[in-house]
Amino acid sequence: MPEILIAGTALRVANVFCVGRNYLEHAREMGSTIGTEPMVFLKPSSALVFAGEPLQLPAWSQEVHHETELVVAIGRGGRNIAAADALSHVAGYALGLDLTARDVQAAAKKAGNPWTLAKGFAGAAPLTSFVAADEITDPQALEFTLHRNGELKQHARTRDMAFGVATLIAWISARFGLQSGDLVFTGTPEGVGPIVSGDELLLTLPGLIESRFQVA
Ligand code: MG
C-alpha cells in the first residue's frame, strides 16, 4: 500500500473515498443536481500518483478530465464520528485530481454500470504533498486553483461545498467506518475539462501547496 508523509510521519493509505457532486456549479455543468445526502464512490489505492511522477493517460479513453479537489487524510479512524468532533480525526490536507475518463463514465452511466473503471484506473488519483491538519483551522475557508498550461481552469472556494469536511467525515464514518490512512477526495468545483499528452497542470493552495504535474 502506498504511504503519504504528513509533518514527517508516514501514514499508510487505506481506503480512498471520493465525493461526487459536492459543488452546485459543477453538478450543473454535468447536467445534474445535488441530493440531500453525499454521493460517495471509491478508487483503489493503486490509482494514486504522487507529485513528481508523470501522469499516464489510459489508451482506452479519448477524453480524460481533470477534477481538482481538496483531499483529507484521516489520522484517527472511528465509527459514527460526530460532526462536531470530526476535524480532530484529520491528519492533514492535500490537493488531488479525481481524473475521470469522461467518455467511459458516460457509457457506464448510460448502461447503469459502476464508474469504477472511469474513475479508478492506474494513475487516476494524483496527489500533492500534505499539509498538517493543525496548519488549517477551517477547511471551509480555503481557496484552491488549477492552471492547465498556465491558464486558470478551476478556482474553488471550499465554503461552496454542499457537504463540508466535517459532515462528510461524520457521514462516511457512519456508513463505512473510517480508518487511519483513509483519504477523502471532497469533490470538484466547476471548470472540469480534458487533459492531453504534454500538458502541465499546476495545483495551488495559496501559501501552503504548489505542485506541478506533467502529462506524459
Ligand atoms: Mg470528483
Account of the protein in words:
By secondary structure, the chain is an alpha+beta fold. The protein has a single domain, classed as Fumarylacetoacetase-like, C-terminal domain (Fumarylacetoacetate hydrolase, domain 2, Alpha-Beta Complex). Helices cover 17% and strands 35% of the residues. The chain has 5 helices and 17 strands. It has a 6-stranded mixed β-sheet. Bound molecules: magnesium ion. The site of magnesium ion has 7 residues, from β3.
CATH architectural category: Alpha-Beta Complex
Distance between the termini: 24 Å
What is the quaternary state of this protein? single chain
Q: Report the bound ligands by name, code or SMILES.
A: magnesium ion
CA radius of gyration: 16 Å
Biggest sheet record: 6 strands, mixed
Given this structure, which CATH class is correct? Alpha Beta
Structural class: alpha+beta
Q: Got a strand count?
A: 17
Which SSEs are present, and which pair or pack?
Layout: E1 3-6, E2 9-12, E3 16-20, H1 24-29, E4 39-43, E5 48-50, E6 64-66, E7 68-74, H2 83-86, E8 90-97, E9 100-101, H3 102-111, H4 116-120, E10 125-127, E11 131-132, E12 143-148, E13 151-157, H5 165-175, E14 183-185, E15 193-194, E16 200-205, E17 209-214
Parallel strand pairs: 3-14, 5-10
Antiparallel strand pairs: 1-2, 3-4, 6-9, 6-15, 7-8, 7-14, 8-11, 12-13, 12-16, 16-17
The protein binds magnesium ion (MG).
